[in-house]
Model the fold of this input.
Amino acid sequence: MQNRFRCVLLLHIYSCRHSMGTIKLTDYMRSIVCLLLTIFYVHSFAQTTQSPVEPVDYVNPLMGTDSRIDLSNGNTYPAIALPWGMNFWVPQTNHNGDGWTYQYSAEKIRGFKQTHQPSPWINDYGQFSIMPVTKKMIFDQEKRGSWFSHKTERSTPYYYSVYLADADVTTEITPTERAAQLRFTFPACDSSFIVIDAFNKGSYIKIIPGERKIIGYSSANSGGVPAGFKNYFVVYFDKDFTIAHTWHDKTLATDTLEYQADHTGAIVGFKTKKGEQVHIRTASSFISFDQAELNAQRELGNDSFDAICKKGRQAWNHELGRLLAEGGTPDQLQTFYSCLYRVMLFPRKFYEYNKANEIVHYSPYNGQVLPGYMFTDNGFWDTFRAVFPFLTLMYPSLNSQIMQGLVNTYKESGWLPEWASPGHRDCMVGSNSASLIADSYMKGIRGYDINTLYEAIVKNTEQEGPLSSVGRKGVQYYNQLGYVPYDVKINENAARTLEYAYDDFTISQLAKAISRPKEEVERFAHRSMNYRNLFDPSTLLMRGKNKDGNFQSPFNPFKWGDAFTEGNSWHYTWSVFHDVQGLANLMGGNKMFARMLDSVFALPPVFDESYYGGVIHEIREMQIMNMGQYAHGNQPIQHMIYLYNYAGQPWKTQYWIRQVMNKLYHAAPDGYCGDEDNGQTSAWYIFSAMGFYPVCPGTTQYVFGTPLFRKMILTFEDGKKLVIQAPATDKNTYYIHNISLNGVVHPKNWIDHSQLQKGGILLYDVKDKPSYTRGTTPAAYPFSVTQALAR
Done:
């Protein structure tokens, strides 16, 4: 700024001397003063108008969108949505059916899609799209695509706009939970059109010109739906149609306004003036056309586009504003709120309100319309770790509704969902629904049928399900031998064993809390120690074990997959969330345990990809981050940094947390270091910015890290506020020397859920050098089963 100012000033002086030779000195000085005031005013005004003033202004929905199948920087898309909304909208750059629906590197947009996609790997269901075109009546997705530039794109959670160069049309979108408004600004054109694409796998379309309306349904899906699944949609226009046709596949139907086929759509046209705006109001329902109409009436009413946009902004600020961060850099604030936005998208609401204003849902499990809550689009293997603990802390009422939805899922399908989209999907391992149910109950959240959920959890521990992702695959071996063997043709067996053992711990905690018989509590407590069966004392790592009791051989701790899930032994060895002290004892004590933790970062990022037959993106992401074997881009190791707190070396937790936050996150299209995964990788950042993390859901403890901001205010659901302060924190100052809660010194390396919920002031005294005394004795360590038994 100073250099630019000097240049402007010198140019002004030069011009005055050469063009105003007879100017008086006083006039000349007046001109200089005016120039100074002008520059100061312009600069000040620019600073004022360009600075974000509300939380939503910091959000960049494009964070993580510069991804592809072989390298994920997030594998996200810019969801135009309300928090936990039933429907999202997204600009579609890739072909219909491509899980990478929006890629930052793309050059064309093919449509604006209503989407329910939780992940490119899981893909979409019930989707349909809307696209403006001009000059020619084009509906084919290849031909209707239009060039666009990020320079003319504006992306926020509640509003999106982009200029479509080929059509010369600006598109704007603003959403509600089950509806949306779109606004198209057309050029002067005799042939302006809007295309509706109902996608394939069975769709229906009907144009009703007299009502300026199109209705249809999409049966598109990627699995996890019952017979007869449909997403019913209605689309209202504010302009008469001069042309109206349906189409199917690549054929225009000129003789009918109604069509049912594998792939159908509609195209309507009209003459437009330069700058003329055409408005669309649309809503959908998984229940019926009538319910879609009702959703439109309820959520859009007679509101204008701008009114809906304003409400959307208010909705996001209300939720994001529950966590007010201050005293960070602009990039830190942008990254924080962009991550918080991601945490507030999933699981999505999969319920609606009928005419009597009763909560009802279409069951993605049995196809019936039933009363009560339903949520979907979530993989608990990812989200049990931090997303659901975040909800228990900040959104207990929502968490209770989700628990009610799990009750309904069990009643309607006979199983708890481990990966749902919208129904059961055969993806990932474990039975981690136990973790988030136990965590909810142990943290005092009520309002749901815990006995039915407990019944469902116990069923999981005794049976295999119809899909490998529900129930427990290999459960007979696990219950009899204490592990799932390596040599019985059950993949990822060691990962299953470790996750089952942790889940059994959470079940034992819940069983005790709801006064189940002592034998039942002890059975699950005993099984929670099964992790010890896979510990190899010769390598100090977890290792697959054969049915005969011998470890599998040869053993390569750098081999991804095989006995483990999307990771290797160096990643999964730490998956003993409930008994870190027990794991440390197996390794020879806390000093060796800490050395093993150090080794994760000290080892080179070598790998063996032979199980997959190629380098999967998770491997590549670990390799290129230059943090040794630490693979933050995938979930199994994300809690590992916090484990130094259990070994009396908390300063190493503080150091590595700040390295990860600074190096592996930023609010840009390449802003993550791997898949974001339904809020999990974002939730890690949110908790870490607060200065604590839920290492072991199912207990009420959060383990300390180091806060990112000088001040953060959490507003809990009951209105109480927790003020987190770290006045000295900055780029190089993050080592904790003291923590106090409401003026009382807090010497432990953890804090309890109930202490946080009471509100008050949590004060961190941080310095630029480590403290080698605070939190270094066993009395300060967080919960471990072994430690608890020793007492």
About this structure: Confidence is low (pLDDT under 50) at residues 1-50.
